[in-house]
């Protein structure tokens, strides 16, 4: 997916089969990010709602160096997570010439999380690549 968007082939995404030392030893190094997949349960939704209300009421201090965008596109949590992983490691990433992802990140760097989400909704290169990859997946 990200090779199509211009991430240099030196970088890859791999599955982590467990957190035990012998399973972690199978993960190539260096590692820049880990994305965790987990089911959305009623308990999680309750926690998320409470946390969102707390943040609205008290605010949240986030370093300006952290790249974050809201998710407004259905079935795009993996894409958003991967964008976060790459955006927060831009200094380590190698991009191909004319990388559409690099351009997206550069263009959206000064935007708010909400503006980044809206921009992603209209960013043709990522949308088309996401849709073609989503149809190849094993989930609905």
From TrEMBL:
<dbReference type="InterPro" id="IPR001578">
    <property type="entry name" value="Peptidase_C12_UCH"/>
</dbReference>
<comment type="similarity">
    <text>Belongs to the peptidase C12 family.</text>
</comment>
<keyword id="KW-0597">Phosphoprotein</keyword>
<dbReference type="InterPro" id="IPR036959">
    <property type="entry name" value="Peptidase_C12_UCH_sf"/>
</dbReference>
<dbReference type="GO" id="GO:0005737">
    <property type="term" value="C:cytoplasm"/>
</dbReference>
<keyword id="KW-0788">Thiol protease</keyword>
<keyword id="KW-0645">Protease</keyword>
<dbReference type="InterPro" id="IPR038765">
    <property type="entry name" value="Papain-like_cys_pep_sf"/>
</dbReference>
<keyword id="KW-0378">Hydrolase</keyword>
<dbReference type="InterPro" id="IPR057254">
    <property type="entry name" value="UCH_AS"/>
</dbReference>
<dbReference type="GO" id="GO:0006511">
    <property type="term" value="P:ubiquitin-dependent protein catabolic process"/>
</dbReference>
<protein>
    <recommendedName>
        <fullName>Ubiquitin carboxyl-terminal hydrolase</fullName>
        <ecNumber>3.4.19.12</ecNumber>
    </recommendedName>
</protein>
<keyword id="KW-0833">Ubl conjugation pathway</keyword>
<dbReference type="GO" id="GO:0004843">
    <property type="term" value="F:cysteine-type deubiquitinase activity"/>
</dbReference>
<dbReference type="Pfam" id="PF01088">
    <property type="entry name" value="Peptidase_C12"/>
</dbReference>
<dbReference type="GO" id="GO:0016579">
    <property type="term" value="P:protein deubiquitination"/>
</dbReference>
<feature type="domain" description="UCH catalytic">
    <location>
        <begin position="1"/>
        <end position="140"/>
    </location>
</feature>
<comment type="subunit">
    <text>Preferentially binds diubiquitin; the interaction does not hydrolyze diubiquitin but, in vitro, inhibits the hydrolyzing activity on other substrates.</text>
</comment>
<keyword id="KW-0963">Cytoplasm</keyword>
């Amino acid at each position: 997916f990200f090779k199509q968007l211009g991430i240099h082939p030196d970088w890859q995404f791999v599955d982590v089969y467990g957190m035990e030392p012998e399973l972690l030893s199978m993960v190539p190094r260096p590692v820049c990010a880990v994305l965790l997949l987990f089911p959305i349960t009623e308990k999680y939704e309750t926690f998320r709602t409470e946390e969102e209300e707390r943040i609205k009421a008290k605010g949240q201090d986030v370093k300006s160096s952290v790249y974050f965008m809201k998710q407004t596109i259905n079935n795009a949590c993996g894409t958003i997570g991967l964008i976060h992983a790459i955006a927060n490691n831009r200094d380590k990433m190698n991009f191909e010439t004319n990388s559409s992802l690099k351009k997206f990140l550069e263009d959206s760097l000064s935007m708010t999380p909400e503006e980044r989400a809206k921009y992603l909704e209209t960013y043709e290169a990522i949308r088309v690549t996401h849709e073609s990859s989503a149809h190849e997946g094993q989930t609905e």
